[in-house]
Q: What sequence folds into this?
């Protein structure tokens, strides 16, 4: 694993805890979405291309708005959202976003009871 920031680990744990508190046993494979934001379309495109090497695929892009002045990319993968898996993938994507001139914003998934 690359060097994951403590704040990213904390954010991962908050999401996992919230899922558990709402009755998710975190045993079911599901789509997991990861968001990152960039200043340019070129940077976003490079992130998307490099993210596919990790087995992630593009789910959505967003354009700048009044509230979010950045080009967004939502990549997804299908897996069980375990702490180790989410730390590994979030770490890779945070490094990749930084490398391509952007910022990783975290992940989300649907609740499965």
A:
């Amino acid at each position: 694993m690359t060097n994951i920031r403590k704040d990213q680990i904390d954010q991962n744990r908050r999401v996992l805890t919230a899922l558990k508190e709402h009755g998710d046993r975190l045993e079911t494979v599901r789509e997991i979405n990861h968001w990152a934001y960039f200043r340019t379309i070129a940077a976003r495109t490079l992130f998307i291309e490099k993210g596919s090497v990790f087995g992630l695929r593009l789910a959505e892009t967003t354009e700048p708005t009044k509230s979010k002045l950045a080009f967004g990319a939502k990549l997804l993968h299908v897996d069980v959202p375990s702490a180790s898996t989410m730390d590994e993938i979030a770490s890779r994507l945070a490094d990749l976003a930084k490398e391509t001139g952007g910022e990783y914003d975290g992940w989300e998934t649907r609740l499965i009871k």
